[in-house]
Specification:
By secondary structure, the chain is mainly beta. It has one domain. The termini are close together. The N terminus is likely disordered.
Length: 135
Protein backbone atom coordinates (compact mmCIF):
# COMPACT_ATOMS: atom_id res chain seq x y z
CA UNK A 1 0.00 0.00 0.00
CA UNK A 2 2.73 2.50 1.00
CA UNK A 3 4.79 1.68 -2.11
CA UNK A 4 1.83 2.40 -4.36
CA UNK A 5 1.37 5.83 -2.79
CA UNK A 6 5.10 6.54 -3.11
CA UNK A 7 4.98 5.83 -6.85
CA UNK A 8 1.81 7.88 -7.32
CA UNK A 9 3.42 10.88 -5.65
CA UNK A 10 6.81 10.64 -7.32
CA UNK A 11 6.58 9.85 -11.03
CA UNK A 12 10.37 9.80 -11.29
CA UNK A 13 10.51 6.91 -8.82
CA UNK A 14 8.06 4.90 -10.94
CA UNK A 15 10.39 4.74 -13.96
CA UNK A 16 13.18 2.83 -12.18
CA UNK A 17 15.81 4.13 -14.58
CA UNK A 18 19.47 4.53 -13.75
CA UNK A 19 18.75 8.17 -12.89
CA UNK A 20 16.53 7.42 -9.83
CA UNK A 21 17.79 6.19 -6.48
CA UNK A 22 15.14 5.11 -3.94
CA UNK A 23 15.88 4.53 -0.25
CA UNK A 24 12.85 2.53 0.88
CA UNK A 25 10.94 3.00 4.15
CA UNK A 26 12.61 0.01 5.86
CA UNK A 27 16.15 0.88 4.76
CA UNK A 28 18.73 2.68 6.92
CA UNK A 29 21.94 3.95 5.30
CA UNK A 30 24.99 4.95 7.34
CA UNK A 31 27.21 7.04 5.12
CA UNK A 32 26.68 9.39 2.24
CA UNK A 33 24.69 9.02 -0.95
CA UNK A 34 25.77 10.70 -4.19
CA UNK A 35 23.82 10.30 -7.44
CA UNK A 36 23.63 12.25 -10.70
CA UNK A 37 19.82 11.90 -10.88
CA UNK A 38 16.85 11.97 -8.51
CA UNK A 39 17.10 10.59 -4.97
CA UNK A 40 13.87 9.64 -3.15
CA UNK A 41 14.27 8.97 0.58
CA UNK A 42 11.54 7.16 2.49
CA UNK A 43 13.92 5.53 5.00
CA UNK A 44 16.79 6.88 7.10
CA UNK A 45 20.13 8.26 5.89
CA UNK A 46 22.90 9.20 8.32
CA UNK A 47 25.32 11.13 6.14
CA UNK A 48 25.40 13.65 3.31
CA UNK A 49 23.01 13.37 0.34
CA UNK A 50 24.15 14.90 -2.96
CA UNK A 51 22.10 14.86 -6.17
CA UNK A 52 22.64 16.47 -9.55
CA UNK A 53 18.86 16.86 -9.88
CA UNK A 54 16.19 16.35 -7.19
CA UNK A 55 16.26 15.16 -3.59
CA UNK A 56 12.85 14.23 -2.23
CA UNK A 57 12.45 13.29 1.44
CA UNK A 58 8.98 11.79 1.82
CA UNK A 59 6.87 11.78 5.02
CA UNK A 60 8.59 9.39 7.41
CA UNK A 61 11.94 9.79 5.66
CA UNK A 62 14.86 11.15 7.69
CA UNK A 63 18.21 12.61 6.63
CA UNK A 64 20.83 13.40 9.28
CA UNK A 65 23.47 15.19 7.28
CA UNK A 66 24.02 17.81 4.62
CA UNK A 67 21.75 17.86 1.55
CA UNK A 68 22.91 19.35 -1.77
CA UNK A 69 20.85 19.30 -4.99
CA UNK A 70 19.50 21.35 -7.85
CA UNK A 71 15.97 21.05 -6.38
CA UNK A 72 14.56 19.52 -3.20
CA UNK A 73 11.15 18.69 -1.77
CA UNK A 74 10.90 17.95 1.95
CA UNK A 75 7.92 16.19 3.51
CA UNK A 76 9.88 14.29 6.15
CA UNK A 77 12.81 15.38 8.33
CA UNK A 78 16.22 16.83 7.53
CA UNK A 79 18.74 17.54 10.28
CA UNK A 80 21.61 19.36 8.62
CA UNK A 81 22.33 22.19 6.20
CA UNK A 82 20.49 22.26 2.87
CA UNK A 83 21.98 23.86 -0.25
CA UNK A 84 19.81 23.98 -3.36
CA UNK A 85 20.77 25.80 -6.55
CA UNK A 86 17.17 26.22 -7.75
CA UNK A 87 13.95 25.57 -5.75
CA UNK A 88 13.45 24.16 -2.25
CA UNK A 89 9.89 23.24 -1.24
CA UNK A 90 9.24 22.49 2.43
CA UNK A 91 5.80 20.88 2.60
CA UNK A 92 3.27 21.06 5.45
CA UNK A 93 4.31 18.71 8.26
CA UNK A 94 7.99 18.68 7.24
CA UNK A 95 10.75 19.35 9.76
CA UNK A 96 14.04 20.96 8.81
CA UNK A 97 16.76 21.70 11.35
CA UNK A 98 19.69 23.49 9.76
CA UNK A 99 20.58 26.47 7.62
CA UNK A 100 19.05 26.70 4.15
CA UNK A 101 20.55 28.27 1.03
CA UNK A 102 18.48 28.28 -2.18
CA UNK A 103 17.53 30.41 -5.15
CA UNK A 104 13.84 30.14 -4.18
CA UNK A 105 12.21 28.70 -1.05
CA UNK A 106 8.56 27.79 -0.46
CA UNK A 107 7.43 26.85 3.05
CA UNK A 108 4.09 25.12 3.60
CA UNK A 109 1.80 26.05 6.44
CA UNK A 110 2.63 23.84 9.42
CA UNK A 111 6.20 23.07 8.33
CA UNK A 112 8.89 23.54 10.99
CA UNK A 113 12.16 25.24 10.04
CA UNK A 114 14.89 25.82 12.63
CA UNK A 115 17.80 27.65 11.08
CA UNK A 116 18.65 30.57 8.82
CA UNK A 117 17.09 30.78 5.36
CA UNK A 118 19.13 32.47 2.61
CA UNK A 119 17.19 32.99 -0.59
CA UNK A 120 17.62 35.30 -3.57
CA UNK A 121 13.83 35.49 -4.05
CA UNK A 122 11.43 36.21 -1.18
CA UNK A 123 10.42 33.14 0.82
CA UNK A 124 6.97 31.98 -0.29
CA UNK A 125 4.45 30.58 2.18
CA UNK A 126 1.68 28.27 1.02
CA UNK A 127 -1.10 26.08 2.32
CA UNK A 128 -2.03 22.78 0.70
CA UNK A 129 -5.06 23.19 -1.57
CA UNK A 130 -5.63 19.51 -2.32
CA UNK A 131 -7.86 17.30 -0.18
CA UNK A 132 -5.21 15.06 1.40
CA UNK A 133 -1.66 16.33 1.02
CA UNK A 134 -0.11 13.14 2.39
CA UNK A 135 -1.53 10.70 -0.16
Amino acid sequence: MYARRLFDRYPGARKWTEDVTVIGPRLAVKGGIRAPGTIVIAGHVDGPVVSGELVRVVAGGVVRGEVKAACAVVEGTIEGPVTVTEVLEIRPGARLKGDVTAMRVAVGEGAQVRGKIRSISPVLRFSEQRGDARR
